[in-house]
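Need residues for this backbone.
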């Protein structure tokens, strides 16, 4: 079985990334390991008294993100691809790369928006960082606006 790590951010392009990753997983008889990395500072706010921590804000945000991960996992499973998920907090690049090693990943699947010829904009800073530092092959899927796709 081919192990595929799929980082998701719940952005507007997550559905397209998910569809591409599922197609790829089916072609290579793969298993998808969904990962979402939440920032470490979710519950912090700056107020009149400086930095303040609100654990209930962090708990609610994490709970909502776990619900979203569960929904994505169920969609992948419904498409006939084995899947598990995890949510971690910290620096996304480092956590994703470590998770890929922990899962003996054969591939990391990332998305690119393809909006400009400038590499950082074309690939994205997280995708660029992972591609640059990964020992594991990174499959970058083009993620475009639906209307752009129809025109091409």
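Answer:
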């Amino acid at each position: 079985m081919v192990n595929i790590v799929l980082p998701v951010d719940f952005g507007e392009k997550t559905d397209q990334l998910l569809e591409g990753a599922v197609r790829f997983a089916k072609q290579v008889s793969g298993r998808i390991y969904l990962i979402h990395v939440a920032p470490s500072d979710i519950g912090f706010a700056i107020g009149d008294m400086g930095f303040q921590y609100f654990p209930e804000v962090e708990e609610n945000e994490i709970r909502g993100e776990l619900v979203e991960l569960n929904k994505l996992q169920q969609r992948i499973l419904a498409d006939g691809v084995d899947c598990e998920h995890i949510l971690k907090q910290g620096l996304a690049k480092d956590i994703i790369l470590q998770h890929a090693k922990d899962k003996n990943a054969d591939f990391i699947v990332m998305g690119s928006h393809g909006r400009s010829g400038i590499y950082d904009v074309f690939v994205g800073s997280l995708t660029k960082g992972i591609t640059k530092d990964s020992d594991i092959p990174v499959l970058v899927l083009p993620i475009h606006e639906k209307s752009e796709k129809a025109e091409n």
